[in-house]
Design a protein that fits this description.
single chain; alpha+beta; Jelly Rolls; seven-stranded antiparallel beta sheet; 8 helices; 12 strands; 28% helix
């Protein structure tokens, strides 16, 4: 076994330990800043397009949006999904048959307010009964995050919280907020960093006091049978598919079409629309 392979195995094992313990891990400096700057350009183009059509973006709170895109709208898509750290984490946490099911971005604009504490979907049965995680969300910031931008805030170690009084299985009651506020850690990623987390870990976006947006790319990956792809409408054209490396085709689970159709966003999280009212 060569040194590079050994290092990647070690990185995957460390990431798995951190994800199961804290619900989140990270790889600082995975890409150069110019790669992240190109990602931001693609996000801004996609956001303008999404706002110009009905259903192109969904609200995740006041002045806060989520937009799912097609892989070929992101110039660095192949770079991302073949990055050695990303593939090592996917294989270690989800197994070799992991599936790429989502590419999109969150965009907190100036004036975005605190979200309620939440997870992104209800806890799956396999996680509830076996404490096994079967999906991951990778995040990449398009800016160097500062305190006034409304940093992402996460409560480490809460990915297995399972309370019957969570509204829709996702929103803990305010009477339990002290658990999350006591654990809360704000994240200040920089361009080129990648984080990986369980979307079940309780988290929220905070108030953006700045005069700039804080775009964050989201890559969603499932283990076999997780079924989160049903929430998404990603597709690729025949021409794009033909140019993909086989190691990407092996994991990309989406329709291959002659022509892309603009995505009508459907992963609405109703409890986020009003913010932490």
């Amino acid at each position: 076994m060569d040194q590079t392979t050994t290092q990647l195995i070690g990185a995957g094992e460390r990431a798995r330990t951190e994800i199961y313990r804290d619900g989140i891990t990270a790889c600082p400096g995975a890409f150069p800043t110019d790669w992240a700057d190109a990602m931001r350009e693609d996000i801004e183009v996609a956001f303008r397009d999404a706002l110009a059509r009905p259903g192109g973006a969904v609200g995740r709170g006041p002045h806060r949006y989520y937009v799912e895109i097609h892989p070929e709208q992101l110039r660095g898509f192949v770079d991302l999904v073949t990055h050695p750290w990303v593939t090592a984490v996917c294989e270690e946490v989800l197994g070799p048959a992991y599936e790429i099911v989502e590419i999109g971005f969150d965009l907190p604009l100036p004036g975005a307010v605190n979200q309620p504490w939440h997870r992104d979907f209800p806890i799956p049965e396999v996680t509830r009964t076996q404490h096994r995680l079967n999906s991951l969300a990778f995040n990449l910031t398009a800016v160097d995050t500062t305190e006034d931008m409304g940093p992402f805030e996460i409560a480490p170690g809460t990915q297995f919280d399972d309370e019957p009084d969570f509204e829709h299985g996702m929103f803990p009651p305010k009477s339990r907020y002290s658990r999350y506020e006591d654990r809360a850690v704000r994240k200040y990623p920089r361009r080129g960093d990648i984080s990986a987390r369980s979307a079940l870990t309780i988290h929220r976006g905070t108030t953006n006091h700045s005069d700039t947006s804080r775009p964050v790319l989201v890559l969603g990956v499932d283990g076999p049978g997780a079924g989160n792809g049903d929430r998404h409408d990603t597709a690729v054209t025949q021409a794009f598919w033909a140019g993909l490396p086989q190691r990407v085709k092996d994991h990309l689970r989406c329709p291959v079409v002659d022509e892309l159709t603009p995505i009508q966003q459907k992963h609405t999280i109703e409890g986020l629309v009003m913010g932490d009212a």
